Amino acid sequence: MKIYYWSPFFTNIATIKAVIRSAESLVKFSKKEKYNVSLIDAIGEWDEYKNIIDKKIKVIKLSKIKLKDYIPKNSFLKSRLSYIIIFFWNFFKLKSLINNDKPDFLIIHLMTSLPIFLSLFLSEDTKIILRISGLPKINLLRHLFWKIFANRIYKVTCPTKSTYDYIRKKKIFREEKMEVLCDPIIDLKEYRLKKIEKFNFEELKNKKCIIGIGRLTKQKNFELIINFFKKIFNTYPNLNLVIIGEGEKKTKLKKMSIKLGIEKRIYFLGYQKNVFKYLTRAECFILTSLWEDPGFVLVEAALAGVPIISSECPNGPKEIIQNNGFLFQNNNLNDLLIKFRDFLNTDKKEIYRNKVILKKRIKKFTLLEHYKKLNQIIN
């Protein structure tokens, strides 16, 4: 059975890992079914990941030109322009590939408008699975587009039950087309190796830290964690703030920390391949996002066993944390300060109990659990 993945990207985002691990789960765990799995390379996006992609997974390049290096990025308007470029750059290439190879399934992430539109010209032998990555904004244009093509989509998968309910209420797709399919965030083998990797950041050794991780964008709302740190700066002189991630707001956030006079105790570490060696040393992990679905770093923090303080934003945190962490009102600095004090005053036995429960709860985000559900959908 041929299964192709389509997921063009041009910045470091969590969905990249989810796509790779989803494909790997099919070749790793399938026994009765033999899956021929391929990643479609639209703009050269998979070049830098070829050394970590399972050799059983084929990467199909639509062009010899690495368009990813030339398209505009790092702002909302530039990214929208890039979507348009990618759409027309790959229109005939993708149409030709699918009609010639006739894969049984085309699993689509991120920039999904092109393969959905191409369903008008594709063989009905290829079934499209629309994999919703993150909480979608259902504006009028997207609502109409999905509604028009709903009958040409075989299945729609949602990363959380909350998002499933949200989209179901919009009545765009028939309920029998919809499924909850958790992202394959956790690779236990990879985690065991990364958590024992040598910590070589001398400046942070033996320092107490709170940590925030994510792209430095509007969604992740790092302004809130910096303002929070300013409020506790003098009360906890031995505490430092570590921010891991890259993005268009990096310069602005650094200037903000200087203006507030707290820059000497804030560490902007950029993108890190291994976040676990930082998480396992942190006093707590704080998520300030305005929205998440489900929140990859939230799952990784739970796996690392670090106490979690998270915004109660739609849609992932509440579903994952429930009563086993500290949820504050979305974008509310005062409530974040209250929940931080609650965390400090909570009994260590209760903190440990929460860690254990969370580790059990995030089992559904492992490669094996993802494979079981995806295999069920395919068959």
Largest sheet: 7 strands, parallel
Strand content: 15-25%
Report, as a whole number of angstroms, the end-to-end distance. 10 Å
- The level of helicity is 40-55%
Task: State mean pLDDT (0 to 100 scale).
Answer: 93
Query: What's the arrangement of strands in the largest beta sheet?
Result: 3-2-1-4-5-6-7
Shape assignment: globular
Number of helices in the DSSP assignment: 14
SSE ordering: EHEEHEHEHEHEHEHEHEHEHEHEHHH
Radius of gyration: 21 Å
Number of strands: 13
Structural class of the helices, strands and pairings? alpha/beta
Low-confidence stretches: none
Task: Draw up the topology in text.
Layout: E1 2-6, H1 15-29, E2 36-41, E3 58-61, H2 76-101, E4 105-108, H3 113-118, E5 127-131, H4 140-149, E6 155-158, H5 161-170, E7 178-180, H6 188-195, E8 208-213, H7 222-232, E9 239-244, H8 250-259, E10 266-270, H9 276-279, E11 284-287, H10 296-304, E12 308-311, H11 316-321, E13 326-328, H12 333-345, H13 348-361, H14 367-378
Parallel strand pairs: 1-2, 1-4, 2-3, 4-5, 5-6, 6-7, 8-9, 8-11, 9-10, 11-12, 12-13
Helix pairs in contact: 1-14
Architecture overview:
The chain is α/β, with parallel strands linked by helices. The strands form 2 sheets. It has a 7-stranded parallel β-sheet with strand order 3-2-1-4-5-6-7. It has helices at 15-29, 76-101, 113-118, 140-149, 161-170, 188-195, 222-232, 250-259, 276-279, 296-304, 316-321, 333-345, 348-361, 367-378, and strands at residues 2-6, 36-41, 58-61, 105-108, 127-131, 155-158, 178-180, 208-213, 239-244, 266-270, 284-287, 308-311, 326-328. α1 (15-29) crosses α14.
